[in-house]
Amino acid sequence: MYKSYIYEDIENKLEEFKELDKNFSLDKDGLYYTIENKNEIIAYILLEKNENNYKLKRIFVKKDERFKSYGTKLLLFIINKKIKKGNLIVGKDNSISDFLIKIGFKKKEDGEFVIEDVENKDFRKKEGQKTVIASIFWNIILATTKIGFGYIGKSRALLADGFNSLSDVVTSSGILLGIHFSNIPEDESHPFGHEKIESVIGVIMGIFMILTAFELGKGGVEILFSGEKREVPEMLTVYFALFSSVVKYFMYKQKIRVGLETENSALIADAKDSRNDIFASLGVVLGILLSIYVNPIFDLIISILVAVLIFKEGVSVILETTDTILDKQDMEFIEEIKKYIYENTDIKNVHDIMMRKSGDKIFLELHIRVPKNMSVYNAHKISDDLENSIKEDFPLVKNVIIHLDCLLN
């Protein structure tokens, strides 16, 4: 259980802290955080706040409980839950430098370690949420106007395009939920984090698009072969279809920008849907004009083509997002990692490189060969240095597992 203490609270538990750590010091302005089991303190951290920055003064884990990741868990709890803004700084303590780098700290030129601008850990979430909320707002407006004026203006194509926008409201709402849940920090039950829920949402979005397309297409085909009289659409429906294409263009530009910046597969899929909606709305314009000046059947044909377009994009979204769920290998990235290792280290053999993606994060596994008479300490150091270097130079790599093999004679 995680707990926080201030100066007044510590006074009541002073003996317990001193019994845990003989070098414990009481800091009047300090912030104390602990992990406790049955009210027994297992580990604690002391932070000192200075303006918008936090300095880690001490981290201590009970001797019998070390090497059980309590220090890592407590530090991640501080980073993810307690520090809302500013830098987290650790002094020049070489005894835990490897531990700090694994957590995500960067070593500065003066020897200190820092996680800069902790609030940026929420950038991906905030940008994604802001973009999707704007998308929901505009799709509600488009769906309402196109369905309403499609009905009033007797245009089935505009009506179909309106239901397409209505489906976008549902899928965007799903993406909004995905962004929220995927940004929940990793925990003991989900050590790889929750980012993969974005891909799950992407698949659901694709299925919903296919179902929407089926219903729209089915209705259009039934009318096409029913032989009933077709009405000529009103000219005003053209303007709403044009308005829709303009709005969808700006929605596409915003979604694709944020999606690529944040590596959000669900948002990228939604951007592609908006891009196709541009052509769908322009197709509606063409269909309405042909219906007015040539034959009313064109409005119906365009409504069916819009349904086919939605169906095609739904299938495409499912195929793309399932690649992430099924851990499809990015061979270009794997070759880039291999080239990086050969060009920047003395390692002569790297093989069996595998990767998996979870949201924007990459998890790597690879094998390297070291001399068979090398000490465990030196082999471990090579492995640690390589892991830290890859994570430093490839920011999207969250974790690296390195298996050591011996060089064959």
TrEMBL record:
The keyword Membrane applies. The lineage of its organism: Bacteria, Fusobacteriati, Fusobacteriota, Fusobacteriia, Fusobacteriales. Keywords: Membrane, Transmembrane, Transmembrane helix, Transport. This is N-acetyltransferase domain-containing protein. Belongs to the cation diffusion facilitator (CDF) transporter (TC 2.A.4) family. It comes from the Bacteria. The chain crosses the membrane at residues 131-153, 197-216, 278-294. It comes from Cetobacterium somerae ATCC BAA-474. GO terms for cellular component: membrane. Gene3D superfamilies: 3.40.630.30, Cation efflux protein transmembrane domain (1.20.1510.10), Cation efflux protein, cytoplasmic domain (3.30.70.1350). InterPro entries: Acyl_CoA_acyltransferase, Cation_efflux, Cation_efflux_CTD, Cation_efflux_CTD_sf, Cation_efflux_TM, Cation_efflux_TMD_sf, CDF_Transporter, GNAT_dom. It is a multi-pass membrane protein. Residues 1-124 form the N-acetyltransferase domain. It is found in: Membrane. One of its GO terms (molecular function) is monoatomic cation transmembrane transporter activity.
